[in-house]
């Protein structure tokens, strides 16, 4: 899928009025998509950010103080890794085991960066900042867009929005401690997962996407009983990436194959 940055340049042979109409139509389409991406980002940010209350409360219950809890949210900023770390700590596990488990889950963000890099096309120092906001939700919102401006809007609004709300709600949860009781009673345990599923669901319309998701889920389910925490997630992500690469290569080969003798036009090209 192509991701245009700018309005197309004028064709020297095209009438000026026609060129202006095309330029205006493309500009409006991109602006509409950017606004839609921002709305999506805000809704995801609110749903996911509220879940920070649960992390803050559970972290304090697990034995961390407020400062340590906030340091995790501010610096690590990866919900899955944060919950994995306090889960091991709360169960009496060794610090090395807690760090290793959180690290395994955090590796997936590096996989996201490989996909986001060419879509965002950021300058060098912007990449350093973007790395902090590269999480499940910002990746999902960004990659669901078609134009580069919408990709960037979706990524930054989601990443920054969740960062602010997640840390604010973490502080609230940490200060409240166990006064909130079981977070599941408030429905907070399902908020982030529901928001992420809502983003993923529309992308499963194609048969190839359905098969990829099914294969990734199957691998994760099979590994959960036998593999260390974080490994099933990484394995599922690796399976999805592998299938995607194989499918992309197959489509490139089909599009770039030898041209038919009955046609004189150029061989077809693929946009992705």
TrEMBL record:
Q: Which organism is it from?
A: Cellulosimicrobium cellulans
Record's GO cellular component terms? plasma membrane
The UniProt entry lists membrane topology as:
Multi-pass membrane protein
Family label? Belongs to the AzlC family.
Spans traversing the lipid bilayer? 41-64, 84-107, 155-177, 183-201, 213-243
Q: What is this protein called?
A: Branched-chain amino acid ABC transporter permease
The reply on keyword Ribosomal protein is no
Q: Which GO terms describe its biological process?
A: L-valine transmembrane transport
Does the keyword Membrane feature in the UniProt annotation? yes
Q: Where is this region: Disordered?
A: 252-272
- PANTHER family named among the record's database cross-references: INNER MEMBRANE PROTEIN YGAZ
Write out the annotated subcellular location. Cell membrane
Q: Which UniProt keywords apply?
A: Cell membrane, Membrane, Transmembrane, Transmembrane helix, Transport
State the source organism's domain of life: Bacteria
Q: Where is the signal peptide?
A: none
Which stretches are tagged as biased composition: Polar residues? 259-272
